[in-house]
């Protein structure tokens, strides 16, 4: 029972995560400030979910499906955080009472997947009209997509985008109280709302956003259009989030940004990414720091220096190449040449010999000739990536590359893609075997999917290791002898 109702309009931000959400004064108007305003709506959502669960005769369930990158995965944890706090039970399939698709639009395939699954959701909703469907994420930032959904998928209840995801609780309340499709999309924002809840997928590791958006405008990429301009979080907000994660049992953080190397440039008091890393390193109890993604043009010597001397920063750097041809790189607006990239990779290999270097490569960019493609193969052979994500170029409407002449025919692209994949995989197998016979620290992540007598953990260099062990090891860092490299992973043995 509540002795006093809490008027969130006068509650300091620092106290917000400790209040009893059943005691919020919902007769008072909603606060104007964030995050108080969203907690008000979470509390309102609680009362709706409670009465709807009683009506339905079962606890209302939710299911959040993520498409795309780690940034989206982290956003989904925030969506789940709101829903759990609002009293929804977690479901494990699209049978749930509320289904949220957090979408991606970086390649055409990602969009097609969502349309396919929406068709299926529509047929489920016919059988259960009380089912609610919400769509968010990058794909929703595209006006054509939203038009198509309005026309062909009218059963969708709520659409919102990447810039106003912090408003999820408020928008969901509006959708639940409305008979019509609720759509709220912002073109851009300079707002960063702190202190909202998040439900972590793993107890021992977590993504942490350090910045949002991208200013690079690589000519093939839709991201700057759907995620807006670069905005960095303040270092003190990042540090305090990580400290509280560590108190809550987190040992490894993945710092997330579209281009982490340009972190901090637009803050009132500018801070470099390397300086931020130095501060994060000081956090006691934190064991591992990862980050994603680095743009080669902004990777500083200061960063290499910090990584080299750090015990916590993992021995892994993802450094997207995209193409090995200087001519294509220029067309891609990547702002580095083949030679500059090779020099940087050589410096990294020299300074941090046990570093695992991984990359992204696109084949079939407009105008790419066999000679250009050979340049890409040449870089792959010289850098010897520990692993690489390879993509077939996908034409994204609205990007400069979509309007370029000389789009490459499918058969040629597929042939190049196959040749690249074979080379990348051969090298990756050899590189993965580099640490065979060593005994290295492993953070145990889960029981093995196929054999419950084994557990699976991750090396600092991001490779997976399977070894005999029990569930109680999950979340612990242990030393494992790397007995046998099986291509892209290891079989190991626990050492005391
Ligand atoms: N086509 C193919 N791949 C793309 N990527 C980004 N845009 C496209 C596109 N239009 C790839 C890049 C990027 C990764 C996240 O996705 O390689 O690094
Ligand atoms: Fe896209 Fe380039 Fe920004 Fe990466 S850096 S998100 S590829 S525009």
How does this model look, in words?
With 496 residues, the protein is an alpha/beta fold. 34% of the residues lie in helices and 20% in strands. The chain is built from 13 helices and 19 strands. A 6-stranded parallel β-sheet has the order 2-1-3-4-5-6, with helices on both faces. The relative contact order is 0.07. Bound molecules: 5'-deoxyadenosine and iron/sulfur cluster. 5'-deoxyadenosine binds next to strand 13.
Overall number of strands: 19
| Low-pLDDT residue intervals, each spanning 5 or more residues | none
Shape: globular
Q: How many helical stretches?
A: 13
Itemize the secondary structure elements and their pairings.
Elements: H1 36-56, E1 61-66, H2 70-85, E2 89-90, E3 98-103, H3 108-127, E4 132-137, H4 143-152, E5 158-160, H5 168-176, E6 182-184, E7 205-209, E8 211-212, H6 223-227, E9 231-232, H7 235-247, E10 252-256, H8 273-281, E11 288-292, H9 301-308, E12 316-318, H10 326-331, H11 338-351, E13 356-363, H12 370-383, E14 387-392, H13 410-432, E15 439-447, E16 454-459, E17 464-468, E18 477-485, E19 489-495
Parallel strand pairs: 1-2, 1-3, 3-4, 4-5, 5-6, 7-10, 10-11, 12-13, 13-14, 17-19
Antiparallel strand pairs: 8-9, 15-16, 15-18, 16-17, 18-19
Bound molecules: 5'-deoxyadenosine and iron/sulfur cluster.
Iron/sulfur cluster (SF4) binds at residues 214, 216-218, 221, 223-224, 258-259, 295.
């Amino acid at each position: 029972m509540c002795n006093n109702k809490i008027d969130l309009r006068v509650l300091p931000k620092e106290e917000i995560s400790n209040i009893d959400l059943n005691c919020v004064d919902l007769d008072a108007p909603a606060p104007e400030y964030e995050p108080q305003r969203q907690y008000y709506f979470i509390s309102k959502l609680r009362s709706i979910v409670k009465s709807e669960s009683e009506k339905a005769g079962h606890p209302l369930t939710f299911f959040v499906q993520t498409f795309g990158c780690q940034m989206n995965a982290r956003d989904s944890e925030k969506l789940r955080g709101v829903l759990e706090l609002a009293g929804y039970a977690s479901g494990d399939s699209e049978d749930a009472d509320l289904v949220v698709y957090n979408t991606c639009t970086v390649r055409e395939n990602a969009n097609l997947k969502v349309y396919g699954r929406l068709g299926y959701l529509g047929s489920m909703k016919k059988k259960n009209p009380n089912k609610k469907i919400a769509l968010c994420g990058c794909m929703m930032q595209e006006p054509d997509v939203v038009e198509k959904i309005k026309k062909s998928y009218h059963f969708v209840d709520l659409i919102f985008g990447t810039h106003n995801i912090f408003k999820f609780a408020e928008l969901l309340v509006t959708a639940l109280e409305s008979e019509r499709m609720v759509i709220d999309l912002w073109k851009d924002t300079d707002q960063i709302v702190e202190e909202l809840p998040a439900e972590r997928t793993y107890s021992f590791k977590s993504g942490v956003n350090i910045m949002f958006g991208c200013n690079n405008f690589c000519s093939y990429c839709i991201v700057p259009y759907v995620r807006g301009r670069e905005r960095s979080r303040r270092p003190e907000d990042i540090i305090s989030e990580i400290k509280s994660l560590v108190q809550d049992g987190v040992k490894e953080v993945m710092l997330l940004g579209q281009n982490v190397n340009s972190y901090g440039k637009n803050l009132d008091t500018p801070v470099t990414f390397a300086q931020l890393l130095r501060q994060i390193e000081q956090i006691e109890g934190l064991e591992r720091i990862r980050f994603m993604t680095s743009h080669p043009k902004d990777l500083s010597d200061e960063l290499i220096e910090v990584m080299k001397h750090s015990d916590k920063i993992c021995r892994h750097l993802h450094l997207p190449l995209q193409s090995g041809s200087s001519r294509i790189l220029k067309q891609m607006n990547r702002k580095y040449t083949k030679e500059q990239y090779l020099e940087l990779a050589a410096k990294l290999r020299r300074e941090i010999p046990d570093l695992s270097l991984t990359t992204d490569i696109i084949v079939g960019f407009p105008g790419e000739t066999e000679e250009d493609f050979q340049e890409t193969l040449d870089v792959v052979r010289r850098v010897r990536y520990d692993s690489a994500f390879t993509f077939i170029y996908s034409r994204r409407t609205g990007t400069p590359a979509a309007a370029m002449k000389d789009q490459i025919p499918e058969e040629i692209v597929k042939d190049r893609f196959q040749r690249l994949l074979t080379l990348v995989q051969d090298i990756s197998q050899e590189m993965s075997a580099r640490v065979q016979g060593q005994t290295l620290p492993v953070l145990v992540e889960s029981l093995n999917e196929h054999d419950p007598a084994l557990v699976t953990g991750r090396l600092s260099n991001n490779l997976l290791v399977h070894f005999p062990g029990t569930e109680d090891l999950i979340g612990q860092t242990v030393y494992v002898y790397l007995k046998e490299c099986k291509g892209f992973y290891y079989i190991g043995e626990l050492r005391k």
